[in-house]
Design brief:
about 650 residues; Leucine-rich repeat, LRR (right-handed beta-alpha superhelix); 24-stranded mixed beta sheet; binds 2-acetamido-2-deoxy-beta-D-glucopyranose; signal; cell membrane; Leucine-rich repeat-containing N-terminal plant-type domain-containing protein
Length: about 650
Amino acid sequence: MLYLILCFLLGFFSSSLLSLSLSLPPTHLCRPEHSSALLQFKSNLSLSISNCSQEVHIFSAHKMDSWDEDTDCCKWEGVVCDNRKGNVIGLDLSCSGLSGSLQSNSSFFSLQNLRWLNLAGNYFGNSEIPSEFGKLRSLTYLNLSDTALTGFVPHEISLLSELVSLDLGQNYLLFRDHDFNMLVHNLTKLENIVLDRMGLSLVVPYSFLNFTVSLKHLSLSYCDLQGNFPTQLFHLPFLQNIILRNNPNLIGYLPETNWSSPLSFLDVSGTRFSKGLPGSIGNLKHLKTLNLDSCVFMGSIPSALGNLTKITFLDISGNMFQGQIPDVFGNLNDLSFMDFSSNNFSGLFPSSAFNLTSLTFMDFSSNFLRGTLPNNISGLSYLRELHLYANLLSGRVPGRLFSLPSLEYLNLGFNKLNGPIDTIQEANLVQLVDLSKNEIQGTIPSSFFDLMNLTILDLSSNNLSGNIKSCMLVKLKNLRSLNLSFNHLLSLTRCSNDANSTLPMIIEFHFSSCNIQRFPSFLNASKSLQVLDLSNNQIHGSITKWEAEGWEGLATLNLSMNFITTVEEIPGKRLYVLDLHSNSLQGPLPTPPQSLAYFLISNNELVGEIPSKICNLSFFLYLTSLRTSWAELFQIVLGHLATSSQWML
Ligand SMILES: *[C@@H]1O[C@H](CO)[C@@H](O)[C@H](O)[C@H]1NC(C)=O
Ligand SMILES: *[C@@H]1O[C@H](CO)[C@@H](O)[C@H](O)[C@H]1NC(C)=O
Ligand SMILES: *[C@@H]1O[C@H](CO)[C@@H](O)[C@H](O)[C@H]1NC(C)=O
Ligand SMILES: *[C@@H]1O[C@H](CO)[C@@H](O)[C@H](O)[C@H]1NC(C)=O
Ligand SMILES: *[C@@H]1O[C@H](CO)[C@@H](O)[C@H](O)[C@H]1NC(C)=O
Ligand SMILES: *[C@@H]1O[C@H](CO)[C@@H](O)[C@H](O)[C@H]1NC(C)=O
Ligand SMILES: *[C@@H]1O[C@H](CO)[C@@H](O)[C@H](O)[C@H]1NC(C)=O
Ligand SMILES: *[C@@H]1O[C@H](CO)[C@@H](O)[C@H](O)[C@H]1NC(C)=O
Ligand SMILES: *[C@@H]1O[C@H](CO)[C@@H](O)[C@H](O)[C@H]1NC(C)=O
Ligand SMILES: *[C@@H]1O[C@H](CO)[C@@H](O)[C@H](O)[C@H]1NC(C)=O
Ligand SMILES: *[C@@H]1O[C@H](CO)[C@@H](O)[C@H](O)[C@H]1NC(C)=O
Ligand SMILES: *[C@@H]1O[C@H](CO)[C@@H](O)[C@H](O)[C@H]1NC(C)=O
């Protein structure tokens, strides 16, 4: 916030300067020694195209192009002067594509009137921070973030006692404990400190207690902080943002009382913060972000969460919270992201979450939540992802879920859902649906095949029954992966009138352990199909030459545990894995394609010659659990593979 104000101030200064300079005679306002100091600074750096990620700085890459001796330095881009004395007081060269080193003897450090200095997003590779920075005593704003600076931060930084905002983040910089202490102690006006991705492993967090009472913004993510974070810091009366993300050796806990009331951003994710989430959190009327992801919090969560009416981001996943989740979310109208996954929550699923009007992401996966999913969902118009994987949810699969206008990803797998899948009134554009490992009964409603943007569909391991017609299935033109395995009563038949229809994008098609009776030859034109698993079905008779045509991309074909008697030709010219074990194959073995690497044919009734071509192949023949004379065969395969032989399985 503060830097926004400062940026605004910079803008304000330069525009007031502009209006002032219009009324002045055409003499240079800039002090000549400032002008030459800046030119020397420029001459020691090279200019390249900025690759700052956060903004596109098309023009600022050439900020310094306007810097030359003939013009007033107060008019140079990025330079701000005070309008009376012509002192250079502000320098914003962030993301300007500068590279070179910061030299300690640079006359730059003679710019002792500088109040704002932003060099962020440039490249001073392998420079240390020159101790001469300590000369810039008037600095209130210093930003050196993301400049590839290295080494220890010099203790002279604590001479900058006017500093209100300091950003040294995204550098290879380290702090010595003593120097850090001095800084904390001496910078009594500091409101804003950002040291993300610096090395603070030598700093004892206890010293944070000496931060000035006016501290508003503390950002110390990815700093390798060690030891105990002082809880009292949460009491600082003006604190708004506290970001400690990813300090896996930082221990701490949240205060029971006396929270800083303006707190708006609290992120301790990826630390060893523990104990509970206190009910007093509900008093934080300004809290927008609460991220406790991947810590060691435990206990139950307070219903006061329902009082956080400003909250937009709530992530408490990956902890050991337990007990019932209070059903208090109905009023959190700004909540956009909510993740309660991977805890130990039990009791009923909090259905008020389904009333949230701004939610885009919801995840309650990997808990022990019971209950049914509400039928009349009034919110969730913006929901893109719904993850309720691995819980104990039961009942129907509400058809309304498939009408939510923004839904892209739905994962209800590994629950106890048993009701049928409701008819879908108005199919949405959902792309991934996983309802696997439930107990869903009944047929798949034909309206389900109107979900035309489905790319991944997993309905495996349920009790689905009925017959899927090929002409329905092929409506899912975007489908890449389909898994319907382990639905013992589910079958697939070809429509008579769909001569040319197919699934053009399909890559994997799993239909194992169902009730399929015919080889689904309508898929043979799917050039992208790589994996076809039809094992453990009811396919009888033969795979004809006609059925084996096409299958251009097929790499893995599993037809094991069926009742196939003959294979006139093996489908797929590029087949890599072919599993025909446990069928009723008789007669001679069909010649496999050259590409084959794994060939499983045990448990059949084959008699005949090993085709001589097999001997040129470098595949593994799996011949375990043979019905007869396997020892004999083993010997043949080992000893006589190079010549055709009589053999028998
Ligand atoms: C420092 O500058 C960078 C790049 O402009 C910006 O992203 C960052 O927010 C600034 N830090 C502060 C504290 O102003
Ligand atoms: C830095 O600039 C000064 C003055 O232009 C020049 O004398 C000096 O050689 C430069 N140093 C480097 C390393 O370019
Ligand atoms: C600064 O020091 C470097 C060597 O460290 C030298 O090459 C350069 O000329 C010096 N520049 C000035 C302005 O003294
Ligand atoms: C540009 O980005 C690359 C990698 O993201 C980095 O290595 C390089 O130092 C950057 N260059 C500058 C001039 O910032
Ligand atoms: C702290 O700041 C004061 C005032 O600028 C300064 O005199 C003093 O030397 C600083 N102390 C340290 C240890 O930097
Ligand atoms: C705060 O600073 C004072 C003076 O430097 C020091 O004596 C004290 O130990 C510091 N407190 C903490 C918690 O570091
Ligand atoms: C909370 O604040 C009250 C009043 O300022 C004070 O009496 C109490 O000791 C504080 N509690 C803690 C735990 O700091
Ligand atoms: C939520 O806020 C209301 C009104 O401010 C208050 O009455 C209620 O006790 C709070 N609930 C919780 C659980 O803190
Ligand atoms: C999770 O809760 C169950 C009871 O619901 C309990 O037996 C188990 O110990 C808990 N696990 C953890 C890691 O807290
Ligand atoms: C959710 O909204 C529905 C319909 O508006 C309402 O009947 C229900 O009480 C709400 N549930 C909660 C928990 O707020
Ligand atoms: C849905 O699929 C169509 C093509 O079948 C595509 O044009 C459209 O962008 C997709 N919509 C979404 C939201 O993915
Ligand atoms: C099927 O394809 C053949 C040739 O590929 C074409 O002659 C025929 O009209 C197509 N039939 C339909 C119903 O699209």
